[in-house]
Amino acid sequence: MTPPAPVEHSLLELAFWVSQIVVAVVAVLAAVAAYLQLRAYKLLEILKLIEGLEIRRARRSVLREIPERAGTKWWDDKTDGLRLETDASDVCELYDILGLMIRHELMDRFWGAMVNFSRPTGR
């Protein structure tokens, strides 16, 4: 029995297979680029949330004014109590949302560590 003769492929068939491989590689690279772009967009949105003017003002108020009033019922203060309570509520809400995002892996662990690092250490 004689072995089968080698099959010769036409130039168009070879070009077709090369083009299919190139298309597959381009599709994978496009998917990777889309993933990286989505990740960058998500991080930018988180930064906009964390560094918004109102949240920065509230966080500054919580970090500077409330510790000065430690041991008192600062939330009952007639002049600044409501403002400080609102600021503390806003900051706590933001950190609760960020904590949920980290817990459910909607945010990178790196950013979670940075948020945790930026939090004032307790007494």
Structural commentary:
With 123 residues, the protein is mainly alpha-helical. It has 2 domains: 31 residues; 73 residues, no CATH class. The protein is 72% helix and 0% strand. The protein contains 4 helices and no strands. The longest helix has 40 residues.
User: Rg from C-alpha positions?
Assistant: 29 Å
Tell me the total number of β-strands: 0
Task: Indicate the low-confidence ranges by residue numbers.
Answer: none
Helix/sheet category: mainly alpha
The domain count comes to 2
Distance between the termini: 90 Å
**Fraction of residues in helix:** over 70%
Distinct helical segment count: 4
The topology string of helices and strands comes to HHHH
The main pleated sheet reads as: none
Mean pLDDT: 82
Q: Which overall shape is indicated by the principal axes computed on the Cα atoms?
A: rod-shaped
Strand content: under 5%
What's the SSE blueprint?
Layout: H1 11-50, H2 53-68, H3 81-103, H4 109-118
Helix pairs in contact: 2-3, 3-4
Please tag this protein with its features.
single chain; 123 residues; mainly alpha; 2 domains; 4 helices; rod-shaped
The gist of it:
The protein has four helices and no strands. By secondary structure, the protein is mainly α.
